[in-house]
Amino acid sequence: MQGNTACAEGAIAAGCRFFGGYPITPSTEVAEHMALRLPKTGGVFIQMEDEIAGIASVIGASWTGKKAMTATSGPGFSLMMENIGYAVMTETPCVIVNIQRGGPSTGQPTMSAQGDMLQCRFGSHGDYSVIALCPASVQEMFDLTVDAFNLAERFRVPVFLMADEIIGHMRERLIIPDSVVSGQRVPLEQGALPFRAGEDLVPGFPTFGMGYGVHVTGLTHDERGYPCATSPKLHEDLVKRLVSKIEGARDSIASYDMVNPEAETVFVSYGAPSRSVQQVLHDHPGDGIGHLRLKMVWPFAESLLSRFKNAETFIVPEQNLGQISREIERHVDGDVIPVPKLGGDLHTPDDLYRVLAEVR
Amino acid sequence: MSEEEWLRQDRLPHIFCAGCGNGTVINCTLSAVEQIGWKKQDTVFVSGIGCSSRAPGYIAADSLHTTHGRALAFATGIKLANPALNVVVFTGDGDLAAIGGNHFIHACRRNIDITVVCMNNMIYGMTGGQGSPTTPAGGLSTTTPYGSEEPAFDLCVLASAAGANYVARWTSYHVRELTRAILTGLETPGFSFIESLVQCPTNYGRRNRFKQVTDQIEYFRSHTILVEKAGRMKEKGEEVPAGMILSGEFVRRNRPALGVRQ
Amino acid sequence: MRLQIDEHRCKGCNLCTLVCPYRIFKPGKQANRRGVVIPELDRPERCANCRLRNLYGRTLCGTCQMICPDQAISWVEEDAHVPKKVAIEY
Ligand SMILES: Cc1ncc(C[n+]2csc(CCOP(=O)(O)OP(=O)(O)O)c2C)c(N)n1
Ligand code: SF4
Ligand code: SF4
Ligand code: SF4
Ligand SMILES: [Mg+2]
After folding, report:
1. Which of these, A175, A235, A271, B44, has the minimum number of CB atoms within 10 Å of its CB?
2. What is the pTM of this model?
3. Which CATH class is domain C2-76?
4. Whose CA is nearest to atom 4 of ligand 3?
5. Across the A/B interface, how many CB contacts are shorter than 8 Å?
């Protein structure tokens, strides 16, 4: 099965019952498969007039209690930014799939890239935190989509599936389990303040139509949900809670593969370039090469890096000019060597082995 | 229940300036909602950004105050995901026709079963009085200091052409007619669009010959003409005097609609 | 019933003075503590609601209430008549 189709199947398995989006290469197959499948599962598919409307409809649907998703790529992702911030501020669970292609602008519609990794973290205005997952196989397009929904429900936050064209269009064997763990947002206790959070910093969800009479706004709001946009303290407390509920959980929700934690030289990768790293490790067994493959890139669990106690060098192959290698530099004392690759082709195992040889 | 019970008492008085027509349109909408007998629990109010879009914040039902121009796209998601909900959208002329223009025509085309109440004050109220797509030619605003040189949108003609099932226009002077039009909109399956011209004394009136709040209301009273009458005049070859506001029903029809409760 | 303007809500726009067929609302003359000039009521008992609202169980006319942008106009029950003991001294 194709990666994009696996993503759509994962969404449906996770209980997604609403898709609103706008076609764009190389993500379109996600929408097309949802259009085929959702009506047969009691769900709703709608092709909106643009990506701004796509994400808006998803947020609206989510407030009725439905698990909802959209899928896009570069230009559409840029259009979604304002409403992504709205979803963060209003704590709306939703899943946004970005099958990354070459940018900037219309760039390379059919070629793979990982150039939106910082945009998904910082692209909307203001301070905030989100969750981003990066699949490296067709199976993970399914599995991580399921995870994305569960995390969105649990943290009431937009969760991104930051795939790339290579994984989205790759065909591999997919095993669809009979059932998947499907988390549900915790309902708000009747009578409780709608935006007052407990210890986990995530307030209960007041689904529309259940008699809560909740006011939801993107303005800075108090625990009643009422706009209160001029109190410095209230704003600071709200933004800090929105950030802490994600960042405070980064170690407990971290998702990764770790190979050879004793290694001195360690590859760090996510998405398609992980395949090349895996090939290097496969071709050079017993070579003592370490590998950290991040399935969750945001929030960035820096503690994983320190688990490589002997690491002197981190090599970071990415299909961009070094977006996550910069993040790694912030956290480690050793050398960080970005291996950027633009244009759509993947790093070959030889490319990576050559860098390794130079470093050693 | 009474209209008063639809209001969030703990948030009144509201932020609108003295004499702002938005408050009147809220009254008319709540009266219509009350008359049709909808329950708070089943009713959702959605809006974009602007003074007019603050309206849902004063209503004690579920409400989504969204981003500038996008209310209709959010509302489409709500209505399709749960057609059992009654969805009413409050919007302004800038919110609906400028930044949200594309969502507007597509919501009309889809004929999605929601009711849209547009408070058209012919200006960007919230941001301090810039020109909008409905600022009349010659109208003064902070961004048209020499008078607007662009032709204005006729929102009702636009909604009619794009496929809405019900389209009407009144003003904040015509509280009864406006209430009745909104009620008809709520009752009509499919997309209902009710435009209410409203006074913005602070940012429009002041700059455009309406010194007192009451002046613009007087103008609304004396410068409206029923669509039908204007039509008959045109048939007879008479001219409808310039500056007249065409009011009444523009369209009432039964095109196939989306998101209607089964 | 008694017609009243909620002083905390009224912003003094005078729209009510424009629409009442009995001209019950007259532009006020003096600003209150919040600087709002609240309209004065001229023989408000002339409003049909004062006599008949309870009888009909709904608001009659009601134009002033509808146009008031600040939800400031309402009819409230008259205070129950409390007979006072008056000592009359001859
Ligand atoms: C994306 C975006 N652009 C601009 C603004 C600034 N803005 C806020 S309200 C507004 C205009 C509102 O005009 P209208 O919809 O007519 O509402 P009114 O205040 O007149 O009722 C603008 C431009 C914004 N909030 N978001
Ligand atoms: S600026 Fe205009 S539209 Fe906004 S509240 Fe004041 S009068 Fe109303
Ligand atoms: S219409 Fe309402 S706000 Fe305006 S003066 Fe009359 S009572 Fe006051
Ligand atoms: S209800 Fe009618 S008659 Fe009575 S005060 Fe209001 S406008 Fe006047
Ligand atoms: Mg306006």
Report:
1. A175
2. 0.97
3. alpha beta
4. C13
5. 121
